[in-house]
Design goal:
Elements lengths: L2 E5 L2 E3 L5 E8 L7 E7 L6 E6 L6 E3 L7 E6 L4 E6 L8 E8 L13 E2 L3 E5 L2
Parallel strand pairs: 2-11
Antiparallel strand pairs: 1-3, 3-8, 4-5, 4-9, 5-6, 7-8, 9-10, 9-11
Length: 124
């Protein structure tokens, strides 16, 4: 069975930083793209970034460049999302997702497996 479990969310003040983790089991990161999405209250699901396999190349939504960084540890089957200079509008439920396509993209309907999400709240 494939499972993805997000962790690392919480309450952070504006301007702060946070690192989210996605623990992946049942698949290898050498064959799957892992992406991060988020969904804020009243908004549609939004793509953030993905890291592809087997090369580990990364891609970001234009609006996410500069403050968000995706990385992975293949041996540990772990993917991370480092976030900095956080703003209240970054408040959302953050998801990781996995896809086997050789042509990855930040389109939520392309992803086969999803975690349950971890909540990030940016507030004073």
């Amino acid at each position: 069975q494939v499972h993805l479990v997000e962790s690392g969310g919480g309450l952070v003040q504006p301007g702060g930083s946070l690192r989210l983790s996605c623990a992946v089991s049942g698949i290898t990161l050498n064959y799957y793209t892992i992406a991060w999405f988020r969904q804020a209250p009243g908004k549609e699901r939004e793509g953030i970034s993905y890291i592809s396999s087997p090369d580990g190349g990364t891609n970001y939504a234009d609006s996410m460049k500069g403050r968000f960084t995706i990385s992975r540890d293949v041996a540990k089957n772990m993917v991370y999302l480092e976030m900095s200079s956080l703003r209240p509008e970054d408040t959302a439920l953050y998801y990781c997702a996995a896809d086997v396509t050789p042509w990855p993209r930040l389109d939520f309907d392309a992803y086969d497996y999803w975690g349950r999400g971890t909540q990030v709240t940016v507030s004073s």
